[in-house]
Here is the input.
Amino acid sequence: MTRGVRLVRYLQPRVEGDLRSLLDDHPWLHQVAGALGSPLNLVLPDQVARNAERFREVYRAHHLSGGIYFAHKANRSSALIRALAGVGGGADVASLGELQHVLAAGFAPERIMATGPKSREYLWLAARAGVIVNADSVTELSDLAGIVAAHALPRVRVMARLSGFATTGTTVLSRASRFGTPATGTAPLWDVLAEHRDRLDLLGVAYHLDTVGLPEKAAALDGCLSAMDDAGRHGLNPRAIDIGGGFGMNYLADAGEWESWTSELTAAVLGRRPPLTWNGHGYGLRNEGGTVRGTLGVYPAHRTVAGPDYLDRLLRTESTAHRRPLGELVLDHLYELYVEPGRALLDQCGAVLLRVEDVGDDGRGETLVRVAGNGTDVGLEQHGVLMDPLLVPRGTPAPGGPAGVYLTGNLCLEADLITRRKVFLPSRPQPGDLLAFANTAGYLMDFSAGAALMQPTARTIAAYRSGDAWRWCLDDRYWPVTGREGTR
Amino acid sequence: MRYDSVTDMIGDTPLVRIDAAVHGLRNIDLYAKMELFNPFGSVKDRAAWNMVRHRLPGAAGRGETVVELSSGNTAKALAVIAGMHGLPFRSVTNRMRVPEIKDLLLLLGAQIDELPGRSECLDPTDTDDPLTRMYHAVSADGAGYLHTDQYFNDLNVQAHVHGTGPEIIADLDGRAPDYFIACVGTAGSSSGVARVLRAHDPAVTVVGLVAEKSDFIPGIRDIDEVHEVGLFDPGTYDVIEAISSDEAIDGLLTLVRRCGTLAGPTGGGAYQGAVRYLRGIDAGLTGRRTAVFIVCDRVESYLSYLRDRRPELFRQPARANSVHSLTGDELAAAPTLDVAAAQAWIDAEQPLIVDLRSPFAYRALHIDRSINIVDDRFGEMLHGGLPFSRRQPVLLVCPVGEKSARYAALLTRMGHPDVRSLTGGVIAWRDAGATLVRD
Ligand SMILES: Cc1ncc(COP(=O)(O)O)c(C=O)c1O
Ligand SMILES: Cc1ncc(COP(=O)(O)O)c(C=O)c1O
Here is the structure.
């Protein structure tokens, strides 16, 4: 038995505040899952509003103004969107459908930023509604100008997304982006904006980099400052810099667990300990003649600096070109700063519940737990996030202490595992128990949910406090006044 | 001593005894192998030279670029050697974390490519990680790269098999030490020396030191990262122990302050790790033993690393006239003017208007007739005293009126009778519709 305990490698999720209180309420969880079935998504609209406030505090500390545009793509929930509309937040939409969704949720047009690949319909509605269009290319800007002219629409505020920033000193390499005009060749951009001056109003320049690397983002912000200056010299009047999203999330409660798990994975890949993953999957690491090769291809689940703290760190980073903190340079220029956080705004904003259907052994010494849901319902594997679910027993927990199990889904596919990592639970689950995947609102909830094999897709409910008790309603029934009748 | 080429000076480094009064071991003689005496400053000079020397003839004619994954001493040595032979040098790294080393490499003419960070929105099906891609690109034949591949190249180990190891035995009068302690980066030096010592005397104990996980000691790897090193064979070491950056700095301080040895952090780590390991053994010994550790490089390149971790070592006297010394009362009493009052004052008194924002921002837009002194430079000037006459009225402006209020309070304390800060700063000025110009 002691040997078994030594092999336990928890990656316990970081669960705090309201989410912790909700997930500790086991009878409540069983009641809603019993009524609405598995899988079931929970979202906490009040929490997203608090997260927006934490970003706002960073702005205040740097004396900066400008919009915080929630990247809608991270979650489809209406409750979350409406909660943000209720506190004066902004929304970054990436499709015609998302634009319609946020307009209906009550966002004022100047609080909406249209990004992503754009159809003509999407451009028309954006221009008609008067939202900010964050343009990926010169062609997109001339298409937009054409639509504005042809339909006699009012002048549209636009941001020009840039990519491929030059660096000074060392060459900071960055993954190539499919989006944005090269920052090293902006002349055609200023030309098209000058030509359509009465149709397009250049609000500023933008970037979004898909990286956790601060030096890359610092280089991009530096590049935006130069581009703004350049635009000014071309007679344009830009006022804002949009630095996109990617502020990140810390998923795990304990840095030590993450460090020892990753060490043990290395040892397992080298064959020095029993596997910690399905079929010895290495998550990008492989054994070549006793040496580990490859790179661990997972999300850095434990991060000491994430979300608003990451923004703060970026703003304090010194510009290599101007030897002054980037935040101060933005302020010196009197520019507004826009951000588009997705994942980071959804910290502690939700969970996915899956019911345990069956628990058995695979004949090779591993325990398999089949759940009523699959890998599209909780996207741990798809997004490379490694963490344990919380066990919500229905009755008395099974004796025998901690258990390491593999979670299989409800699709008739060999590859349908909720995560290829062996997860660890305080006791062996039993049919009827629930597994709560905490802190999954950002990208891990309904990003790619579909109805494969006609299995049910999750319902989403919004949970809110009423005094000490938790109440809920269906996601699309939630409005910022819900449950607050007493206060009008 | 006369040499034909600076590369002839590589190796033959001294072995120096550490005073027992410093390390406190009663039965063990502890020696430092002074690799910091190599001409380009580190143990890596040996490996760098051994990996490229036979490939240099004709390399310039073929237009080759020397390339290595290194953010430290190997890059430094290769940059110098490449420069001497008319070759460009390119260093690819994801860990260029010591600014002095980065600047030194740029000074030596190296091109430094920093790899991108991990993807924030991960696509696990994308196995194309930048390091692997880079590795394939520089390793391909005919790609124009002279890739030294220090983590996998046996010539790295051979440099120590033929140099460092035999030198230690010779300096100990033909005996191998009982204990050999070294930090592990590429594992080249420790593996090469261990091989020679064991062949001479199989009883030698070899201690490998790595950094604690999620700690950072420039030049060496942590316990996971060593497994990515092709030259690393756990069988080389009798013991592998982790040291923290804190311990490495403690050791560095002992070496630089008490032993006249200007060692960098890994030299300090090797010393501290050696004493920590040997202390337990020393107590039970009856006869005399000998131990050797490696001092890999010098302290000067790590000043900012040390300043970050031990700011108290660099304590400086408080400077006169500093905004940090202002009291709450002084700040509250800072003389200020709102936009309308400031405009009237400018018309009536023509104060000197000092804009404290960055020159870059000032150039784009500013209050007419203002001059620009960026805040930190202005702060520097005030340490020396009032930079303008007491009879000259002064209006200070910054973006939001916060810094300008601090400096107005400070100038008032310094005895200037007529200094004001613009409330709300240039932003309030702009929002009130007052004129801003671009010269
Ligand atoms: C343009 C843009 N903005 C913002 C985001 C949000 O990123 P995150 O959720 O990492 O903050 C994305 C994500 O793909 C994006 O493409
Ligand atoms: C400062 C410093 N110390 C120690 C080492 C470790 O030496 P080796 O690579 O031979 O293991 C290195 C190597 O990069 C180094 O730069």
About this structure: Confidence is low (pLDDT under 50) at residues 1-5 of chain A. The CA atoms of residues 54 and 439 of chain A lie 17 Å apart. The domain at 45-248+303-346 of chain A is CATH 3.20.20.10 (TIM Barrel). Chain A has 13 helices and 21 strands.
